[in-house]
């Protein structure tokens, strides 16, 4: 895990409004959204980015997930990974299992009261290939 500042990026794709409670039960919306993106919206040679935004509150609240790329084709939704400070969690392995395990590491890390406070403005999964991704979690800027 590494702290870094990221510039804003705009993602064009498809989205769903959900929460972690819904996604932890059978019938969550995220697997169907990914299936739809990969079959109807995937663009060759475009880097896939999944942006988590519009947080209602915290890890327990609703959020919007937008899957897409920086290319503006076949977009039904637009989301922004806002500029700011992020912790980067690298994941390697077969997808989606590696990203699911990555999120479990993220939740465990932030369960520690001594961890940096999450910003809940935007987070992202940036895919580098079929078996490599980075999960970016927005954090509050360090105190000056």
Automatic annotation (TrEMBL):
Pfam families: Cass2. Residues 1-140 form the AraC effector-binding domain. Signal peptide: none annotated. Gene3D superfamilies: Regulatory factor, effector binding domain (3.20.80.10). This is Transcriptional regulator.
């Amino acid at each position: 895990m590494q702290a870094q500042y990221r510039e804003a990026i705009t993602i064009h794709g498809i989205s769903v409004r959900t929460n972690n409670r819904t996604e932890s039960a059978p019938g969550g919306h995220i697997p169907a959204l990914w299936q739809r993106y990969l079959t109807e919206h995937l663009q060759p040679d475009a880097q896939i980015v999944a942006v988590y935004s519009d947080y209602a509150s915290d890890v327990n609240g609703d959020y919007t997930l937008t899957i897409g790329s920086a290319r503006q084709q076949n977009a039904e939704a637009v989301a922004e990974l806002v500029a700011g400070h992020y912790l980067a969690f690298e994941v390697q392995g077969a997808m989606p299992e590696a990203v699911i395990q990555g999120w479990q590491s993220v939740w465990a890390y932030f369960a520690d009261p001594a961890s940096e406070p999450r910003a809940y403005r935007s987070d992202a999964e940036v895919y580098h290939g079929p078996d490599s991704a980075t999960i970016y979690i927005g954090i509050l800027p360090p105190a000056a």
